[in-house]
Specification:
Blueprint lengths: L4 H8 L6 H8 L12 H16 L10 H19 L5 H11 L10 H25 L13
Length: 147
């Protein structure tokens, strides 16, 4: 008797997928039973399921809220670099917390995090553009405020 443990482990990682649909697809609707699949069909299905479950959210371009928060802090640091200032991580976190008020930075939803990230990237781009307009080398322009 064959064991289909690997199939069921992979199936559990595929929300919305069901056994019958997968088996039908890989047997060209010949059967919906794992036991009636040929070894070749079964191996192809397992390889496909393996590939599908290895695609992490990061590889698909989807970020978690924690990743967005880290990206915001990185954008704040790159904005500071464009200004020629070296921020500590604690200072950058303080800027992020002030920018997210009245909400707590850690309680922002994904949409709010994306907007905040875009804001800091736009700010960095504006600084670089202003420096290039004035012919000032990057890191020397000092007439900048966070507000």
């Amino acid at each position: 008797m064959a064991s289909f443990k690997r199939f069921y482990v992979l199936l559990a990682k595929m929300p919305g997928a069901d056994k019958e649909t997968l088996v039908n697809a890989f047997t060209k609707c010949r059967t919906s039973s794992l036991r009636e699949m040929t070894s070749q069909e079964y191996m192809e299905m397992i390889q496909h399921m393996d590939a599908e479950t290895k695609n992490t959210p990061e590889q698909k371009g989807v970020h978690t809220r924690q990743q967005w928060r880290r990206m915001i802090l990185a954008a704040i640091h790159s904005t500071a670099d464009a200004k020629g200032i070296n921020y500590t991580s604690a200072y950058a976190l303080g800027i992020a917390k002030r920018a997210s008020m009245p909400k707590d930075f850690n309680q922002l939803n994904e949409g709010e995090l994306v907007r905040l990230y875009a804001h800091f990237l736009d700010e960095k781009d504006a600084i670089i553009e202003k420096k290039q307009e004035h012919g000032t080398p990057l890191g020397i322009l000092t007439d900048f405020s966070l507000n």
